[in-house]
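Quick one, T. Sequence first:
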Amino acid sequence: MSEEIQFLHDELDGITKELEKSIKEIEKKKMKPDAKADKIAAVQDRIQRAKDIYSNFRVELRDVLKEKGRIAYTEWEEKGHAHHKNINKFTKEIETLQHKMEDEEAKALAGGGPKDKKDINTWGGNEIIAEAKKVQDQSGASLARTQKIVESCETIGQETNLALKSQTEQMKNTNADIVGVDMRLNRADKVIKQIARRLATDKMIMCLILILILGIIGVIVANSTNLLGGGTSGEGDEQVDCSLDITQTTRECRAKREAEAEAAAAAA
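C-alpha cells:
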C-alpha cells in the first residue's frame, strides 16, 4: 500500500513542477490570443488531472492508517495537504490569467462586427475557453464515473482479499489438525508395537512355565509308577536296604519278606 501512495505522491510532484513552469510561461511570454487560450486550457486539464490523483491519494491514505499506523498516516497527510494547497494555488492563478485574457480580448473586440458561432475561426479566446471548459466538464464527469467504478472494484478486491485470508487461516488450522492427528497415530503405532513385544514375551514365559509344570508332573508320575529308581533284581541294579524304616514299603522289601516267610513255612 505504501508503494501505491508513494507513486501518487511522485506523480503529483511531477505535475506541480509542470504547472509552475507552464504558468510562468503564460505570465512572461507574449503569446497570440489563440495560443494563450490553448495554453490555459492545457493547464486547466493538468490541474483537473492533479485533482483526480489527489482524490486517489486520499483513498490510499485511509488504507495507510489501517495498515501502517498513525505516525505514517500523519506524515502522508501532511504531504497531501501540501499537494492540495498547490492545486488550489494553481487554480486561482490560472483563473486570474483567464480573466485577464478575457478582459484583453473584450477590449480588443470592442467595436468589432458580428461573428459566426458555427465558424470556429471567428471565435474569440473567451468562446474557445468556454467550449474547452464544457468539454473539460464532460471529461471530468466521465472521470468521476470511472473513479466510482474503480472504487467499487477496489472494495470488491478488499472483500476478496479478506475472504482469501480467512480461507488461508482455515487451511493453516486444518493442516495443524492433520499434523496433530499424524503425531497421535505415530504414538499409537509405537504403543501397539510395545504391546506386541510384551505379548510375545508373555507367551514365551507362559510356554516355559507350562514346560516346567509338565516336567514336574512327569517326575511325579514317574515316581508314583516306579519308573525312576532301581529294578527288581536285575544285573547292575542297586540293592535296597530293607532294614531301614523308609524302605519297608517298597516292592523289593515286600517281595523279600514274602520270600522269607515262604521259606520259613517250607522249613517248618
